[in-house]
Write a structure and sequence with these properties.
elongated; 4 strands; single chain; mainly beta; 52 residues; 0% helix; 4-stranded antiparallel β-sheet
Length: 52
């Protein structure tokens, strides 16, 4: 994390197949938004809100 920006990657194993996904985005109060990029390309947006 740098300021309100974050990024991380993870490797997932699904039925013997492994692939990587990279996430990046920003936090703003109780919300977050960003992009997820997969091994097949064509990333997509994501959003989240802190529950309480």
């Amino acid at each position: 994390m740098t300021g309100n920006a974050f990024s991380f990657s993870m490797t997932i194993d699904f039925n013997g197949n492994t692939f990587s996904q990279s996430y990046s985005g920003t936090f703003d109060g109780d919300t977050m938004q960003g992009t997820v990029e997969g091994a097949r390309g064509g990333g997509g947006p994501f959003t989240g809100t802190r529950g309480g």
